[in-house]
Specification:
The protein is α+β, with helices and mostly antiparallel strands. The protein folds into 5 domains: 8-111, MutS, DNA mismatch repair protein, domain I (3-Layer(aba) Sandwich), CATH 3.40.1170; 120-256, Nucleotidyltransferase, domain 5 (2-Layer Sandwich); 288-399 and 537-563, Orthogonal Bundle (MutS, DNA mismatch repair protein, Chain A, domain 3); 430-531, MutS, DNA mismatch repair protein, Chain A, domain 3, CATH 1.10.1420; 570-647, P-loop containing nucleotide triphosphate hydrolases (Rossmann fold, 3-Layer(aba) Sandwich), CATH 3.40.50.300. The protein contains 21 helices and 20 strands. Strands 3-4-2-1-5-6 form a 6-stranded mixed β-sheet, with helices on both faces. Strand 1 and strand 2 form a beta hairpin. Helix 13 packs antiparallel against helix 14. The longest helix has 33 residues, at 503-535. It is elongated and about 115 Å long.
C-alpha cells in the first residue's frame, strides 16, 4: 500500500507501477534498479539478495526494498524471467545533471519470455518464438514471431493440428484466450477483445501500411489476421520501439511440410533427447556442422519442417551434392563462414536501440565477408552449378554503403559502452575533432603550466593535479609554502601541504571540462544517428542473413554426408520405400561402425506392412526409428545413411 504522503520519488514509482500492475517493476535510482513493497519481497526471494526497507507506509510499516546494480541487469533479468516473471524496466529518461528537481523516469520496456533480445538470455542455436492462437469453429489461426531475429510466420490449421504446430516451433510464450495443455511455455491468457478483428486490422495497418491485406496476402484469412494482430499489439505494449525490424508476415501451409506431432518429435529425438532435453544424441546434433548461429537455427527449423515438394527437396539435394563433390569450393566457403557473426540478432538489437558500439563494429566485419563469399561462389564457373547456389550467390551481394558508413564513423576497436567515449572516428564530425583538439591542447597546456610554475616559483616539487571534487589544483608541500606567489588562491589545507588555484587555471579547467562533457554527449548523439541509419537498412541486412544461414546449412549437410558415408536419396511415385544397408544415423555414429545395417522394402503391392517380432532389446524400435529418421532427413534435403534409398514422399510420421 502506498504511504499516506509518499516522497516525490515514491510517488513517481507508484505512478509507473499502476501501468503494469502484473509485472515486477525495476525502477532506476542512481546506479541501481530498485524494487519496492511486494515486488521487493519477490525479487529478494527469487534472486537470493538482501531485503531491506525505507520510509514507512500509512500503516506505520516500513516499505520493503531490494535492488540490483544497473550494469548487471541482464544477469538478474534472466533469472527473473526463468522464474516465470513479467518484468517492466523503468529508466531515467533525462540526464540527472540537467534535471530540475526529480529526474524524469518512464517504462522503456516490458520483458517476457517471448520478447527477449539480450544475447546472454538466449540460446543462440534456437529460435525464441512468441505465439498467438485464435480459435475458430473448426480451425485455429496461429502467428509466430521471434523478436530476436525478426521472423514472422502465420498459418491456419484444423484444430486437431494445434499441438503439432506448437511442437514444430516450441514457442517460449503463448498468447491465447483459452487454456492450453502445453509444457515448456509461458501462457498468457488474454481477454477476447485482444484478438478482435478491429484491433488486428489497426495493428497490421500501423506496422505494414494501409495495403497490408494485399501485400501480405492475408485477404480472406481472418484467423491469421487476428493472430498476427494480437502479437503486434502485445509487442507494442511490451516495447515501444520493438517492431522496426520485423519482416513481412510469411504465410506457410501445413500441407507444404511433413506433419511431426509432439510425441513423434520427442520420441524420435529430432532436436532434443528424452533424457535431459539437450541436443546430445539427437538427429540435429548428428547433422549440425554449421559455423554460424543463424545456420544452426535454420537447420533446426528445416528438420522440424521437412518438405512435401519433390522439386524443392531436389533443389536442396542438388546443392548438397555439388558441395560434397567439390572439396575446394566446400572448404573455402566453410572457412570463410567461421568468422560470421549472428546478423539476425545483431540487427534486432540495432533496431531496438540496444546495440553497443562494439556490436556495430562486429556487424561491419560480417558484412565485409559478403563480397568474399560471393566471389568464391562466382569463381566456381562450372556449368553444373546448382540453381540454389547460383541464387545464393546473387543474394549475397555486398552492402558497401553500410560498411562504408560504419568504417567512416566508428572506431576500429570501440569501447562496449558509448558513455565511455572514444567511439566516433577522427574526421567523421568537425565538432568532435575540434573538441578533441581542445582537450589535447588543454592537457598539454596544463603540463606546460606546471613546468613554468616550477621555474617561476622555484618549487621543484610543485605539481598540478585533478580530482572530481576540486577540479584542477596546484599542490605545494608544507616546506615550500614560503615560496608561494601572491596570486595563488588557497583551496585546501592538507597534513603535508596545501592546494591552490589561479584564475588562469580555473579558466582552462572550465574549458577542458566543458569540452569533455560536450564531447561525450556529442559522441552519443552521433552514435545513435549512425545506429538509426543502419536500422533503416534492416530489410537488406536480413536478406543477406537468411542467405548466409541457408548456405551454412547446405555446407553442414554436405560435411555430414562426406563424414558419415551417406548417399543421395531418390524419390519414386509408386509409394515405395526401398533402402539397402540402412543405418540409424545417431547410433551408427555412436557405435563407430559397429552398427549392423539392414534392408527395408515397403510398397503398395505386397509389402505395405511389416510385422516385426523379437525379444526385448532386440532393436525393433531402432529399426522403426531409422526408417522414420531416413524419411525426415531425405525430405529435409539431406543425404541419408544407406547404400541405396528410393523413397516416396511421406506426409506424416
Amino acid at each position: 500500500m502506498p504511504p499516506a504522503k509518499p516522497s516525490p520519488l515514491m510517488e513517481q514509482y507508484y505512478q509507473n507501477k499502476k501501468l503494469y500492475p502484473d509485472a515486477l517493476l525495476l525502477f532506476r535510482v542512481g546506479d541501481f534498479y530498485e524494487t519496492f513493497a511486494d515486488d521487493a519481497v519477490i525479487v529478494a526471494r527469487d534472486l537470493n539478495i538482501t531485503l531491506t526497507s525505507r520510509q514507512k507506509d500509512d500503516q506505520g510499516e516500513k516499505i520493503p526494498l531490494a535492488g540490483v546494480p544497473y550494469h548487471s541487469l541482464d544477469v538478474y533479468l534472466a533469472r527473473l524471467i526463468r522464474a516465470g516473471h513479467k518484468v517492466a524496466i523503468c529508466d531515467q529518461v533525462e540526464d540527472p545533471k540537467l534535471a530540475r528537481g526529480l529526474v524524469k523516469r518512464a517504462i522503456t520496456r516490458v520483458v517476457t519470455p517471448g520478447t527477449i533480445i539480450e544475447p546472454s538470455m538466449l540460446d543462440e542455436s534456437s529460435n525464441n518464438f512468441l505465439a498467438a492462437i485464435v480459435k475458430g469453429d473448426e480451425n485455429v489461426g496461429l502467428a509466430f514471431v521471434d523478436v530476436s531475429t525478426g521472423e514472422f510466420l502465420t498459418t491456419e490449421v484444423p484444430s486437431n493440428r494445434l499441438y503439432s504446430e506448437l511442437a514444430r516451433f516450441r514457442p517460449a510464450e503463448c498468447l491465447s484466450s483459452f487454456s492450453l495443455h502445453w509444457e515448456g511455455t509461458s501462457l498468457q491468457i488474454l481477454e477476447e477483445p485482444c484478438f478482435s478483428a478491429e484491433r488486428a486490422e489497426a495493428a497490421l495497418a500501423d506496422r505494414y501500411g494501409p495495403d497490408w491485406k494485399e501485400r501480405l496476402r492475408l485477404e480472406g484469412r481472418a484467423l491469421s489476421q487476428r493472430a498476427c494482430g494480437a502479437v503486434l499489439s502485445y509487442l507494442n505494449a511490451s516495447r515501444f520501439d520493438l517492431l522496426g525490424h520485423l519482416k513481412d508476415v510469411q504465410i506457410y501451409s501445413g500441407s507444404d511440410y511433413m506433419v511431426l506431432d509432439e510425441v513423434t518429435v520427442r520420441n524420435l529425438e529430432i532436436t532434443r533427447n528424452i533424457r535431459d532435453r539437450s541436443r546430445r544424441g539427437t538427429l540435429l546434433e548428428f547433422l549440425d556442422q554449421t559455423k554460424t548461429a543463424m545456420g544452426a537455427r535454420t537447420l533446426a527449423r528445416w528438420l522440424q519442417m521437412p518438405l512435401q515438394s519433390e522439386q524443392a527437396i531436389a533443389r536442396r539435394l542438388d546443392a548438397v551434392e555439388e558441395l560434397a563433390g567439390k572439396s575446394l569450393l566446400h572448404r573455402s566457403l566453410a572457412e570463410e563462414l567461421k568468422g560470421t557473426s549472428d546478423l539476425e540478432r545483431l540487427l534486432s538489437r540495432i533496431s531496438c536501440k540496444s546495440a553497443s558500439p562494439k556490436e556495430l563494429s562486429v556487424l561491419k566485419s560480417t558484412l565485409e565477408m559478403l563480397s568474399r563469399l560471393q566471389e568464391i561462389l562466382m569463381n566456381d564457373q562450372s556449368s553444373a552449378q546448382s540453381s540454389y547456389l547460383q541464387d545464393l550467390s546473387s543474394r549475397l551481394s555486398p552492402l558497401d554503403d553500410i560498411v562504408s558508413l560504419i568504417e567512416r564513423s566508428i572506431m576500429e576497436d570501440p569501447p562496449v559502452h558509448v558513455r565511455d567515449g572514444g567511439v566516433i572516428r577522427d574526421g567523421y564530425d568537425p565538432e568532435i575533432d575540434q573538441l578533441r583538439e581542445l582537450l589535447r591542447d588543454g592537457r598539454g597546456w596544463i603540463s606546460r603550466l606546471e613546468g613554468s610554475e616550477k621555474e617561476r616559483t622555484g618549487i621543484k616539487s610543485l605539481k598540478i593535479a585533478f580530482n572530481n571534487v576540486f577540479g584542477y589544483y596546484i599542490e605545494v608541500s608544507r616546506a615550500n609554502l614560503h615560496l608561494v606567489p601572491q596570486d595563488y588562491i588557497r583551496k585546501q589545507t592538507l597534513a603535508n601541504g596545501e592546494r591552490f588555484v589561479t584564475p588562469e587555471l580555473k579558466d582552462m579547467e572550465s574549458r577542458v571540462l566543458s569540452a569533455q562533457e560536450r564531447s561525450v554527449s556529442l559522441e552519443q548523439e552521433l552514435f545513435y544517428q549512425v545506429r538509426d541509419l543502419v536500422a533503416r537498412k534492416a530489410g537488406a541486412i536480413q536478406d543477406r542473413a537468411t542467405a548466409l544461414a541457408e548456405l551454412d546449412v547446405l555446407i553442414s549437410l554436405a560435411t555430414s554426408a562426406k563424414e558419415n558415408n551417406m548417399i543421395r536419396p531418390e524419390f519414386n511415385q509408386e509409394g515405395r520405400i526401398s533402402i539397402r544397408s540402412s543405418r540409424h544415423p545417431v547410433l551408427d555414429k555412436a557405435m563407430r561402425g559397429a552398427f549392423v545395417p539392414n534392408d527395408v522394402l515397403l510398397d503398395t503391392d505386397r509389402n505395405r506392412l511389416i510385422i516385426l517380432t523379437g525379444p526385448n532389446m532386440a532393436g525393433k524400435s531402432t529399426f522403426m526409428r531409422q526408417i522414420a529418421l531416413t524419411a525426415i532427413m531425405a525430405q529435409t534435403g539431406s543425404f541419408v545413411p544407406a547404400a541405396y534409398a528410393s523413397l516416396t514422399l511421406v506426409d506424416q510420421v
